[in-house]
Specification:
Length: 244
């Protein structure tokens, strides 16, 4: 583990391993590769005391039990690891989410299209024909940050945030896509809505998506949205691969 890595103590039971200072797929790949290496080391009994790992756009926070392993020893163990950055891509899942774009479910679609110099139909095509990457989870439980959007859909956050964004809203800003798992305030441009359940504390795991996943959005009509919303959550999405 080299390449200008910073090791930042985060309290007395966590260590942040920082790979850079920007949103970048290569940095994310390194963070995810370290996560998998630590999980593998824990399973094999090579590294003890690691409780949880939390990836961000450019770093990995490692929570550990200080009664089992010290921060200094954990850093030494990490520095000794051999990591393959391509391993995570090979093991990731692809999750296909149905989305009804525009109208009451995506009130900002026309403004987004106008800002990008395209029609609403072209904006939907640009958003749904690419494979999105889950960089990290944050803001709320089950809330993913997905990249990377084409130039036509890259725009700033709304000048005036909304006080209410319905659960399942698909929104974009700063070259990324998010999906709101719960009703909440939000300042991103809402372009659609999915009937998928992003977070359910009663399931294991409770979050539908996880860092390192790939996401495809499948455009649907409002009638199909209503039909899918009436089905069990597991029947509303398609998942390819297990991410193991």
């Amino acid at each position: 583990m080299a390449k200008e890595i910073r090791y930042l103590p985060s309290g007395d039971c966590a260590l942040t391993v920082e790979f850079g200072d920007r949103v970048d797929r290569a940095l994310s790949a390194r963070a995810m590769a370290l996560r998998r290496a630590l999980e593998r080391g824990a399973r094999e009994g090579v590294i003890e005391g690691v409780i949880e790992t939390v990836p961000t756009f450019r770093s990995l926070m490692v929570h550990y039990d200080p009664l089992i392993i010290s921060g200094a020893r954990l850093r030494a163990e990490i520095e000794a690891l051999e990591i393959d950055d391509s391993e995570d891509e090979a093991a990731s899942r692809t999750v296909t989410l149905p989305v009804v774009y525009g109208g009451e479910h995506g009130p900002d679609l026309e403004d987004v299209a106008k800002a990008g110099g395209v029609t609403p139909a072209e904006a939907v095509k640009l958003h749904s024909e690419i494979t999105h990457y889950v960089y990290m989870m944050g803001f709320a439980p089950g809330h993913p940050y997905l990249g990377d959007l084409p130039r036509e859909l890259t725009l700033p956050r709304r000048e005036t945030p909304r006080t209410r964004i319905p659960a399942g809203t698909v929104a974009i800003a700063v070259g990324q896509t998010v999906i709101y798992p719960f009703e909440s305030p939000g300042g991103w441009s809402a372009i659609g809505r999915t009937p998928a359940v992003l977070f359910d504390i009663r399931t294991d795991p409770p979050s539908l998506l996880r860092a390192g996943d790939h996401v495809r959005f499948r455009p649907i009509e409002a009638k199909e949205y209503d039909d899918l919303a009436a089905r069990p959550p597991a029947e509303r999405v398609e998942i390819d691969g297990d991410g193991a």
